[in-house]
Amino acid sequence: MTTKLFTPIQLGGITLPNRIVVSPMCQYSAADGAMSDWHTVHVGSFACSGAGLTIMEATGVTREARITHSCTGLYSDLNEAAMKRVVEVFRGISKSPIGVQLAHAGRKASTQVLWLGGKPLPGAESPWQTVGPSPVPFAEGWHVPHELTIEEIKGLADAFAASAKRALRIGLDLIELHSAHGYLLHQFLSPLSNKRTDRYGGSLENRLRAPLEIARALREAWPKERALGARITASEWAPGGFEVDDAAVYARELKAIGFDYVCVSSGAGVSHARIKVEPGYQVGFAEQVKRKAQMNVMAVGMIVDPQQAEDILAAGRADMVALARGLLDNPRWVWHAAERLGVKIEFPQQYRRAHHELWPGAQLARPKQTA
Questions:
Q1: Catalytic residue at 28?
Q2: Of residues 183, 200, 250, 261, which has the active-site annotation?
């Protein structure tokens, strides 16, 4: 049986064996930006998953770019060596591409890890000065960010390019530029957080300027025979924010620079957003950006059922689907999707005894999927 979900796709100079992507997921388990044993196990588990692409978590391009003290970074030799170890373990198991999401948290940096509250770090927990396009805090009680100078904005492009060169030395296949979820590039894009009156604020053209300068620096640093993409926002879910038509303009500019895809997400830019979360709630945004920008688009957000994922791609609404919590909940989601859709995929020989063709227990474990 032929399905769109299990059809290969070309991104830049790499080929994904299928269109299922492991979305970047913050693990808050690094030490001074360096990945740990947890990351080896976490990322290594996706090497057995059968996903066509794995993108490692949002990774700060400087120490101050991290969300928390425990976030991953790619700003030092120690960071680079630790990530290389994780990637080597992944490559020892999987032939599928692996990449990293490069990020700067901006005004949402200097916070606690989620399970400790996720609030701004108090004085006793070594907070640091956050930055942003304007001195507008994320919410009441949050740190007031330092307004970046023009020289500091130029320095950001250098920092992203430097991290890209480290990613190249590690041997990664893909870089994704994080410009969504209320982090620094999104803060420049949004009129709700960007109140500047210089060439980096005001009109959409001006608000795009800093993210596009960083995008060009990445394109120059990253080989075209690999893949380069961006996660973008298509709605703030709040009046007066950055919306899907703006996202389409941004995507077209990224395409012109030489980006190979965009992953279309939404929300998290302002604390008062009210998001209606339901199955596939962001797919419509991806569909609109794909149509208006005419480029490869990844859909994300409550895509949990294999038939749902197949229908999204078969209808041309997106070119790939990205899963995060769905894969945490069910690390064998890809295997079960192939079973459900009648597709034969490569299977780790070590786990072959659990294949549904050989293990009668599969019918008992998944009666609804195999009925």
A1: no
A2: 183
